[in-house]
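BUG-147 | component: ligand-complex export | severity: low

The export step for D-ribose jobs runs without errors, but we want the raw record kept on the ticket for reference. Input record follows.
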Amino acid sequence: MKIGIGNDHAAVEMKKEIMAYLESMGYEVVNYGTDENASCNYPEYGEKVGRAVVDGDVDCAVLICGTGVGISIAANKVKGVRAAVCSDTATARLVKQHNNANIIAFGQRIVGIELAKDIVKAYLEAEFEGGRHQTRVDMIHEIENRA
Ligand code: RB5
């Protein structure tokens, strides 16, 4: 499985650690984020990663900024993206099982690195349950078509 990762300047260190963690688990990781500590604009990276996911260049993705919020809001503007901010493992599991989130996001300023690793693992190991949840996911994307 190929996983995209993106970040702004507020999450360079955590991005590097999560990349290494994913690679240690055998995943191929594509880095779309900045590797510089210089201030930059998270919408650029949210959009880039969102497009990589919906274009099928990667299977899913991880986004990290200071809070995980700004970069996920930007990604969610790309049609077909379902990016979910998670600060705990239960939410990380449920956003895959119920929402079929194709991007998981969190904040370097909010969660510690060990929790961040557990969040990513919980998300990747969970499976979408389909059924009534598919109906609701379809309804989300019908909103995009009415926009
Ligand atoms: C950057 O200072 C910060 O605003 C950004 O990383 C993020 O937290 C925005 O939601």
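Assignee comment: Attached the raw record above. The mean pLDDT is 98.
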